[in-house]
Amino acid sequence: MRSRGFTLLELSVSIGIAALMFFMLGAVFIAQGRYLAIENAIADTQYNAFQALDTVGLFTASAKQVVASQTINGTAYTTGTSTVVLQLPSINSSGDIVVGSYDYVAIGLDPTDSSRFLYDLDAAAGSARADGTFIKAELVDKLIFRYNAVVQTSATAIDLYIRTSETARGQTIRMPLGKIYYLGAS
Amino acid sequence: MPRKGLTLIEVVVGIALVAAVVVVFGVSLTAAAYAQRIKLRNMAAALAGEALAAVRVGNTSSLSPVTDGPLVNLLLTQGVFKTVEDDTAPSTPNALNAATSTSSGLTAMLPLPADAYSDFTLTAKLKVNGGAPAAWKAGLLFRAHDYDNLYEVYLTSGSLVFKKYVNGAATTLYSDARSIPTGSWQTLSVTAAGSSLSISLNGTAVTTLTDSSFSVGEAALAVWEGASVDFDDVSIGGTTWNFEDAALGELQDDWLRFGLGDLPSGTGTLTIAAPYASDSSFKTYTVNFSWTDGSGTTRTVSQSTQKRN
Predict the structure, then answer these.
(1) Distance CA A30, CA A24 (A)
(2) pLDDT of amino acid B278
(3) Chain A positions with Cβ closer than 8 Å to B
(4) B21: which chain A residues are within 8 Å (Cβ-Cβ)?
(5) Domains of chain B and any CATH numbers
(6) If exposure means fewest CB atoms within 10 Å of the residue's CB, which of A25, A148, B16, B199 is most exposed?
(7) What ipTM does this complex have?
(8) pTM summary value
(9) What is the CB-side half-sphere exposure of residue A56 using CA atoms within 13 A?
(10) Rounded Cα distance, B130 and B168, in Å
């Protein structure tokens, strides 16, 4: 039997169908890429917001009080809406409190980059806590500390509001979170 | 010449290709919806943790078993507050609008920026927008500790009312009859100086009385029964907000708070049970935070703790 080639019409229809398939597949994969980017942004914003919450919880649980201001590792920090300075009883390597000795920690926005959340800790001599500045979260959009007393240093609770945000494929993903921390309560 | 149709294998491959496209698209959509659901669930869980922490540190000796009662030792924002254009606003062009998707009780509440106000003069201009339910109420909370311990002063269509709640028990400290039309701006003011509490409306003193139930607490804008209300020129302790600095649809930065308003149609309740008949001081506290997701389904996060009075 003699084999027959494609007619022009068959070829045109085949190319048209192939083009349609490529268009559909392309649209699907573009959409999938967009969803993936948004999911990543949601995960990023959640992770960073919870990192900030965990950090404040870690230190307020062992804090003695809020202090008005303190110079820590060469930087002067003042308690306010974007930073809180806490006085912590020092602990030794066994985890026991060192009587009469205090560490100080400033928690809040990085003074040099307001999209970062850090803590800066000044440990007393003999304290087991590690000195230094530690970046704990990024993507910070808004951060507010509030206090349950008119005079901040009399506060027994600190109310943290944090919002992280990231833009993915033109869409801004925001993660607002907050918590009230009671000093000395875990 | 005989016409030739598609072979079985061609049909199968074609169907498989279309199915693959649909599946990939469907999985993407589902994954995105799931990520959003997890995000809201984590937010609700954070609120639940906060509400239980407030139970643990607060005085709970006066609390009795209740199902789906108000949260204690904690005030959370409710409803949606956002900056809107209002050509009638005292400070044009913007005002702060309170709205909600719920329709009974306290439906929208936003504390002022600080968590503690003691002695102050608190003033807010407010306008109840047209279409409000006949039973609308709008006003201020002050020296508030939680939903059951606070002072509140509010306007209705036919009255001005000043109340206090102590452990959930309401006492009307003052009320009078007056006509408050919707669509008109009213200036409501409270001056708290120690136990002396004064109320004025549109610059005219209404009442001054003495009450020492609460000396410090939060101050808040409050709306009941699902009304849409615009607030403007809110001031306390010498600071005034006219909401001109915020972008439309947003809240001014220092007013941002995490609360029920961050969950779509969010609600939060506390259920208290005394499971041991022989020891009623030992109670179980369960907080339930619910919201409505994109599909219209109500989701709930529950957390519990136990505590002896």
Answers:
(1) 10
(2) 84
(3) 21, 24-25, 28-29, 31-32, 35-36, 38-39, 42-43, 46, 50, 53, 81, 142, 144, 146-150, 157, 159, 161-163, 175-182, 185
(4) 24-25, 28
(5) 48-76+259-309 (no CATH), 78-252 (2.60.120.560)
(6) B16
(7) 0.85
(8) 0.87
(9) 32
(10) 32
